[in-house]
């Protein structure tokens, strides 16, 4: 229980005779799939996001969120236990969900590295385009995140980076991508995709898709080998540059510590 939660304001408890476990489970499943409940939860998340962004996490109370949502504070407890739970949901939707999605794409055997990179970049771009306010909130609130939420947040960020590094490494190994430093390339792609949260205005699904597709294409083009037939007249100079890149990549491999 957070410091702002008074004992007499805890989540209301049911009264009357106890019900069977099966009956309670059935009713709980019905509540979770209730469209109205989903709509209210969405409104709570949206208002919490707005208030956290405007006032900061520490300065926003559950009463503020209840007022903004049009609920009484006791009614709010039917949907959320405390502020930490709300913030945890926001962090999960902004980082844990994308990390899991990227891993799923990376595990596909029907796609090569280039196609995987395109799918991954599109997925992240769409995610940022559809809910930029949540990502901005988390970035601005990093210093205020409770320890357990901050730990999950950092772990999810590492997972996102790991998935992009993995696909770049595979692309280099198969010869589809230029021999660049995988971590630097992954960070560059992620940075480009995350920046959507600061300049894109959500609300139009078609615009979201167009922007996501364009940025995914830019991410792919920045890493894959160009079609040799489209090379400029400066062919020899371009060939020498590519050889230098290959040599730099080989030197990095030779400098890497070898496992015992």
TrEMBL record:
Residues 61-80 bind DNA. It holds the Pfam family TetR_C_24. It comes from the Bacteria. This is TetR/AcrR family transcriptional regulator. Gene3D superfamilies: Homeodomain-like, Tetracycline Repressor, domain 2. InterPro entries: DNA-bd_HTH_TetR-type_CS, Homeodomain-like_sf, HTH-type_TetR-like_transc_reg, HTH_TetR, KstR2_TetR_C, Tet_transcr_reg_TetR-rel_C_sf. Residues 1-37 are annotated as: Disordered. PROSITE patterns: HTH_TETR_1, HTH_TETR_2. Residues 38-98 form the HTH tetR-type domain. It comes from Rhodococcus jostii. Keywords: DNA-binding, Transcription, Transcription regulation.
């Amino acid at each position: 229980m957070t410091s702002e939660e008074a004992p007499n304001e805890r989540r209301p408890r049911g009264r009357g005779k106890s019900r069977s476990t099966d009956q309670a489970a059935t009713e709980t499943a019905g509540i979770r799939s209730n469209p109205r409940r989903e709509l209210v939860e969405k409104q709570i998340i949206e208002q919490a996001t707005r208030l956290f962004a405007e006032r900061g996490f520490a300065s926003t109370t559950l009463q503020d969120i209840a007022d903004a949502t049009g609920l009484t504070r006791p009614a709010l407890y039917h949907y959320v236990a405390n502020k930490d739970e709300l913030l945890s949901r926001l962090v999960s939707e902004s980082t844990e969900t994308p990390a899991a999605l990227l891993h799923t794409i990376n595990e596909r055997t029907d796609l090569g590295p280039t196609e995987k990179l395109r799918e991954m970049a599109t997925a992240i771009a769409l995610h940022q385009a559809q809910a930029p306010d949540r990502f901005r909130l988390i970035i601005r609130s990093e210093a205020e995140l409770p320890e357990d939420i901050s730990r999950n947040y950092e772990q999810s960020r590492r997972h996102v980076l790991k998935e992009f590094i993995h696909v770049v490494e595979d692309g280099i190994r198969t010869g589809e991508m230029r021999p660049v430093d995988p971590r630097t390339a992954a960070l560059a792609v992620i940075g480009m995709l995350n920046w959507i949260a600061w300049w894109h205005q959500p609300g139009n699904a078609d615009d979201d898709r167009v922007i996501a597709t364009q940025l995914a294409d830019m991410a792919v083009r920045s890493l894959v080998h160009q079609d040799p037939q489209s090379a400029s007249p400066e062919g020899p100079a371009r060939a020498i540059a590519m050889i230098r890149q290959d040599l730099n990549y080989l030197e990095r491999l030779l400098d890497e510590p070898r496992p015992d």
